[in-house]
UniProtKB/TrEMBL annotation:
This is Anaphase-promoting complex subunit 2-like protein. One of its GO terms (biological process) is protein K11-linked ubiquitination. InterPro entries: ANAPC2. It comes from Trifolium pratense (Red clover). GO terms for cellular component: anaphase-promoting complex.
Length: 182
């Protein structure tokens, strides 16, 4: 099969794919999607799961679909972070929604220790979610590295930077009205 970069926009390559290869690609893609979900749900510690995940990544890469792998993985990471990270983070501040629209001169009875405790708890939980997802991202990086024999540091940094950008974007786009001044 041709180099994936030279065939990036060559739709004629589809004519060279056999029916068996097509089934292998479809089966691996479906299994990769399922494995990605399982990984993000906490199956990363299962040794057989890790080998299976890597196998699906390798099969997709072998067929020139290397760019599809991180794109899908990052999309699922984003959806999961929005659901399990950002959503839970902002819910910590729901009890303070009643303070929206109050003037600085209004008498607000909020215990600073309580606010600090809520903020610390929210930050701790979102940090744990982010750390867990970063471990999953590193599993993907290792799978890609093992396919290529070595992955350029720039590619690894790109994936990590993109994930950090996703986290920031999700947090900002899900910002509740409790924080009108941001």
């Amino acid at each position: 099969m041709e180099d994936s970069h030279s065939s990036l926009f060559n739709l004629g390559i589809l004519d060279t794919v056999t029916e068996d290869q097509l089934h292998e690609i479809l089966d691996s893609y479906n299994a990769f999607c399922n494995a990605t979900q399982s990984l993000l749900l906490g199956s990363a510690g299962d040794i057989s799961f890790g080998a299976e995940f890597v196998s699906h990544v390798h099969t997709l890469c072998k067929h020139g679909l290397e760019s599809l792998v991180p794109d899908h993985f990052l999309k699922v990471l984003e959806e999961t972070f929005q659901r399990n990270g950002a959503s839970r983070f902002w819910r910590h501040f729901d009890p303070y929604a009643g303070f929206v629209g109050l003037d600085e001169n209004d008498d607000i009875n909020i215990d600073e220790d309580e606010i600090e405790s809520v903020l610390c708890n929210a930050l701790e939980q979102i940090s744990l979610e982010k750390q867990s997802q970063e471990k999953c991202l590193l599993i993907l990086v290792q799978a890609l590295q093992s396919f290529k024999d070595q992955m350029l540091e720039a590619e690894t940094n790109y994936l990590i930077s993109k994930y950090q950008w996703i986290v920031s974007s999700v947090l900002m786009t899900t910002l509740p009205p409790v924080f009108p001044g941001l």
